[in-house]
Design goal:
The radius of gyration is 22 Å and the shape is globular. The protein contains 9 helices and 21 strands. A 10-stranded mixed beta sheet has the order 5-2-1-10-9-8-18-19-20-21. With about 500 residues, the protein is an alpha/beta fold.
Amino acid sequence: MTSRRSFLALLSIISTNGCGSNNKNIPQNNHAALSENPFQLGVSSGDPCDDGFVIWSRLCLPDEYNKQDVEIWWSIEEENNELAQSGKAIAYNSLSHSIHIEVSNLKNNCWYIYKLKLGQFEIQGRARTLPGKNFNLNHIRLAYASCQRWEDGFYSAYQQMVLDSPDYVVFLGDYIYEYNCRKKGAARQHHLRKALSLQDYRDRYTLYKSDPNLQKIHAFCTWIITWDDHEVSNNYTEKNGGNYSSTRQILSAYQAYYENMPIRAGSILKWLGIRIKEVKLYRAYHFGSLLSMFVLDNRQYRDGVIIFDNNKKQLAVGEDRTMLGKDQLSWLRLSIEKSLPENRKWNFIAQQTRFTPSNYIDGKGRNYNIDTWDAFYNERQKIVDFFKSSHTENLVIIGGDIHKNWVAEIHEDLYDLKTKTIGVEFCGTSISSLPERTNNKKIKKWLSDNPHCLFINEKYRGYGMIDIYPSEIHVRLKAVENAKNPFSPVITLAEFKVKNTQEKMTIQRV
């Protein structure tokens, strides 16, 4: 395992010179004779800003290169094939030959083609910078997805997602699952053990990233990414006191996450030196005049799991429990306040799990799901109050985790439909991960007991596609007919239009 000191030193080099073009210690190796394609895990771009993004890849190299740092060439072209930038980057052996090129000084709101080359092999992808904050943007298309357990199904949903042509993909967690393979009902098998060590996590990402459909959507457009629990272990929180994960396992999972995701070195470097078990993933993105998006980390800072009494009944949940942690909640409030004077048409919160109550009929703090916002009801209401106090009725929350679609209204008082609707929630189903076993009778009861909820689907796997305009958003819930079929067609399960007016926010099924 890479030591903390050497890991930090490498990240320091990358963050100050991500492109590697001025580093005198770059190895001058000749890889012209490589016999196999080193880009077998594909490419990706992520973490966009007004003038750039991160370009990622991870090399698969023959044994003779496995203990060497390797130099690659990269270039960025505009859509008219005009060269915009080029340089060299280092794939460090100590970081599993991953590449993170932090590009800047590009035009805002532009598509680019980026290329990576090593020896005779070359690979390319597309990326898009964000519009500047004063850019008058009239439309953007986002896809959102989560939960892609390898053995539960094929990633056929991503074939259709490419055809839907999103500008950005928002991935909401559970990119990998740390489990052993299911013994029964698996659509495809793997033979990896439960992930505990750094090499275990690296092997798991290698498996997942070998999927051709996942590679295609990564190369197609820029991703905005956060994580959930299975990137470490099921129901993991840092405050579990070791019940689920050791400190060594946590750091191994965090390092592997960085090695395999298009995120900036600074997201780790800035924080890891202070607290060894933190990766800063919460951040804000602004899409011109149209949209502000606040991406949250619901997992890393939350209070531990609820304790049960001797009769296996849930103890009363405390009002002071936090899912976001003090610092992140303060950041969210200040970020919202800072963005409001800029009068963007929409405010999105991208986070991991179901936000609105699924225990409406029981009331807050009772009969709650311990892993959703129902167990953190006081903090949840604080977020709603941020928007309520600003008189802003343009909130859209997207989530994942629960392996079902859940579409609901967000009221000023989440447990009182008589209060004003200030937002809507679209919690997505999974790309492939199986749901809990349920039936239509149970779904009808959910809808009856939760009158703010407008739609539930637990049968189908899929993703969401959102077209955002100044006065409305159009949401299509896309579903794979059979995730165990690698060539399964994708259907539109339901469509919704959300209108944003000065009087009120409305949602209507199309």
